[in-house]
Amino acid sequence: MLQAIGLTSAPHRDRPPEVDDLTFEARPGLITALLGAPGSGKTMALRLMLELEPGRGVTYFRGRPLHRVAHPAREVGTLLGDVPGHPARTVRGQLRLMCAVAGVPVTRAEEMLHVVGLDGLGDQRLGTLSLGMDRRLGLAAALLGDPHTLVLDEPAEGLSPRDNSWLYGLLRGHADHGGTVLCTFADPKEAARVADRVVTVDGGRLVADQDAVAFARTRLRPRVAVASPHAVRLGTLVSREARAARRSVEVVTEDGCHLSVYGTTCAEVGETAFRHGVLVHRLTEEFGDTNPPLPPRMAVPPGPPREVTTGPAATAPLPTPDMPEGHGAPTNPPASPRSSLPLITPTRPRTPLRPLRYELRRLLGVRTTYLLGAAVLVGSVVLAVLLGRGGRTPLPHLAAAWPGLLPLPPAAFGAGVLGALAFGEEYRYPALAADRGTVPRRLGLLLAKLAVSAAAALLLAALTVVLDGQALRLVYGSDLARIPPDWPSLAASWAGLTVGCAWAGLLAAGIFRATTAGLAAVLAVPVLVVPLVQKALSSPHARSVAGLPGRLREVAWLRWPHELDGWLTAALRLLARPQGAALALSLTVLLCAYVFTGLRGRARW
Q1: How many CB atoms within 10 Å of residue 360?
Q2: Predicted confidence (pLDDT) per residue in 104-123, tens digit
Q3: What is the Cα–Cα distance from 520 to 413, expressed in whole angstroms?
Q4: 284 closest CA partner among 309, 259, 308
Q5: Distance of alpha carbon 359 from alpha carbon 454, whole angstroms
Q6: Sheet harboring 205-211: ordered strands across?
Q7: Which of 138, 289, 484, 493 has a CA between 20 and 30 Å from the CA of residue 169?
Q8: Distance of CA 143 to the CA centre of its chain
Q9: What are the two backbone dihedrals, phi and then psi, of residue 547, each rounded to the nearest 5 degrees?
C-alpha cells in the first residue's frame, strides 16, 4: 500500500506551494489515478513522494518511507518522462546497465524485453525510438527490480490507441497480481475508464477521493447539486414528479443534506421545492469538470490525515507521521499542526549495487569508446611513421608517437577523454537518478570508475606501442623497432602517464560536472603545470632525495624485501621528472577537491 500524508512542497519566491497538505492512499490490487489539469500539482506530488523535491510530509511504501528502503528499485518502479539514456546506447544495453543499478541478474533484461514487446528491437538505438517504444522501455526499466509499487507520470500521453490498450493491460495485470499502481491523468474520461479509484487534485490540494463508479456518476455527467435540510424528502418528490411526467431523472443522495440530480435543470428542481415548501440552501448546476470549486480553507484542516469525498466511498484512516514504522493507523489519531510533519529532503541517487559491472557496461555500451580508440590507434601509427622518417625522434617518443609539438601523445589524450566521459556522460545522460543532473558520489562507484578507466588507459597504451612498433618494422625495418635496455622504467613511465591522464579527466569531470572540464584538466597538466614544476625542480638550491629507500628502511618498523628498494627508486625517479611530478601534483589536488565537494554536498560515501 502507498500512503501519502500531508505532502506540501516548498514555496518559491513568496508563491503558494504547488502541493498543499495532500493526503491520499493507493491500495494494492487497484489502479489509482491522480487526476488534475496541467499545473494542478500532480507531478510535484509524485516528486515529493519519491523524495526528489524539498517539502513536508511523508509517504509510506508498505509502511516504510523511501529513504528507509534498502533497495528502492525492488520496492518502487518509476517512470517520470522519457528514458534518460545515452541516445547511442542500444535498448538491450540500457536495460543491462539498469540491471547493474538495481542489483538484479542481467537475464532480467531479456525477460523485460519480452514482457514489454521489444524482443526484436533489442539492438535499436535509444535515439531512434518512437514515443511508444520509449514508453515501453521506460516501463521495462521500472519493472526490472520486480517492484510492488509503480509510480507513473502520465504514461499514456501522446500514445496511440493501440499502445494505450497495451499499456493499461500491463498495468492491470500488475495490479491483479497484488501490486500497487499510481498514475497521473489529465483526462477525466480516461481516468474513469482505466482506474479503480480516482484522486482529484486542483491547486495542489485534494478535491475528491472516490472510487471509479462514484467518480463517473458525479464528475462525468451534468448534474444539479442540491443542499437542503430535507434532502431525502425533496429527492422523493423530484423522482415522483419525473415518473409522472415520464422523464428520465436520476436522484442520488450523497448524504443526509445533499442530492445530485441527473437529467433535469435547476429551474425544475427549484419549482418542485417551491410547490411543496421545501427549504433549499444551495441549488447549482455542475458539469463534471476537473477543477470544481474548493471548499473553504478552514474546511480542510491541516494536521492529521483526513478523507475528502464527494460520494459514498471512504477509505481507512492513514497512519500519522509519528507512528512506529510498519504499524497500522491508530483508532483516534491525535491532531497535530502541519509544522509537525517531517521535512522531505531530496535524497542523493543511490550508487549501482554492482558498480564494476555498471561501469563496464557504461564504457562498452556506446560507439564513442570504440571510435575514440580506433582514432587514437590510427593517429598514433600515422604519427610514428612520419616521425620515423625524420630520424631525429628518440626511440621512446617514437614508440609512443609523441612529437615535441604536441603537449601529449594521442594515447594519453585519448585516455584522458575516456576518463572525462566516465563522469561527463553521467551528468548529461543520467542513468542512476530519476532526477536529472545529479550523480551519486559513492566510494564504490568512484573506485569502479578509477579501475575501469585505468584498465582502458593501459590497454590503449599497450596497443599503441605494439601497433607503432609493427608499423615502424614494416616501413623502415627492424632498426627502429628494437627493444631498449631500460624498457621496464620506460613502460612504467608510459603507463603512469596514460593512467594519470585518465584519472585527471575523470576527477575534473566529476568536480565540475562536465566533460569539457575534464578535457581542460588533461591539457592543463602539460601546458601549465609541467612548466611550473620544471622551473621549481631546476632551481640550483634543490636538494636530492638519493638514498631515501635506505633511510626509510632504518626508521620503519616493518622490514620489506630488498627488491622493493628498486621499485621505490624507480617511482622516485618518475616523480623527479617534471611530467611525473606535475601529474602527481594535479591528481592530488583534483582528488582533494573531489572529496571536498562531495563532503560539502553531503554525499554518502
Answers
A1: 18
A2: 999 999 999 999 999 889 99
A3: 11
A4: 259
A5: 12
A6: 76-79, 149-152, 180-185, 31-35, 197-202, 205-211
A7: 289
A8: 15
A9: 85, 10
Q: What angle do CA 341, 179, 42 make, to 5 degrees?
A: 45
Average pLDDT of the chain to the nearest whole number: 82
What's the rounded Cα separation, in Å, for the pair 339 and 337?
5
Task: Give the number of other Cβ atoms within 10 Å of residue 272's Cβ.
Answer: 19
Please choose, from the candidates 6, 15, 29, 14, the residue with its C-alpha nearest in 3D space to the C-alpha of residue 171.
29
Four-residue CA torsion sign, 80, 61, 185, 28: positive
Q: How far apart are CA 199 and CA 315, in angstroms?
A: 12
CB-based contact 401:381 (threshold 8 Å) = yes
* Beta strands in 329-453, from DSSP E residues, in sequence order: 343-344
Poorest-confidence range of 10-24, 245-259, 493-507, 524-538? Answer: 524-538
Q: Among 92-106, 110-124, 162-176, 346-360, which stretch is predicted with the lowest mean pLDDT? A: 346-360
- Return the number of other C-beta atoms located less than 10 Å from residue 374's C-beta: 11
Nearest residue to 583 (alpha-carbon basis) of 521, 511, 509? 521
DSSP tag of 529: I
**DSSP secondary structure of 474-503:** HHH-SGGGPPPTTHHHHHHHHHHHHHHHHH
R_g (Cα) of the chain, nearest Å:
34
Long-range contacts of 315-320 (CB under 8 A, 24+ apart): 315/25, 315/27, 315/209, 318/3, 318/5, 318/23, 318/25, 319/3, 319/5, 319/60, 319/63, 320/5
Instruction: Please tell me the distance from the alpha carbon of residue 259 to that of residue 387, in angstroms, as a whole number.
Output: 93
Tell me the H-state helices in 57-187: 91-102, 107-115, 131-143, 161-176
- Under 8 Å between Cβ of 267 and 224: no
Residues near 8 by beta carbon (within 8 Å), at least 6 away in sequence:
17, 19, 20, 21, 22, 55, 56, 57, 338, 341
Q: Which three three-digit cell numbers place residue 439?
A: 550523480
pTM above 0.90, yes or no: no
325 φψ region: left (φ > 0), alpha (ψ -120 to 50), beta (else) = beta
Instruction: Give dist(CA 588, CA 342) in Å, integer.
Output: 40
Q: State how far the Cα of 379 lies from the Cα of 390, in Å rounded to an integer.
A: 17
Cell 484522486: give the residue.
199
Residue 41's nearest CA partner among 193, 184, 196, 187 is 184
**Spatial separation of the C-alpha atoms in residues 374 and 379, rounded to whole Å:** 8
Strands in 258-262's sheet, in edge-to-edge order, are: 250-255, 258-262, 223-227, 282-286
- First-to-last CA distance in the chain? 31
> What phi and psi, each to the nearest 5 degrees, are found at residue 251?
-115, 125
Q: Please state, as a whole number, how many other Cβ atoms lie within 10 Å of the Cβ of residue 245.
A: 9
Tens of pLDDT, residue by residue over 233-270, are 999 999 999 999 888 888 888 778 998 888 888 999 99
513 in the Ramachandran plot: left (φ > 0), alpha (ψ -120 to 50) or beta?
A: left
Q: Minimal CA–CA distance to 264: which of 234, 303, 291?
A: 234
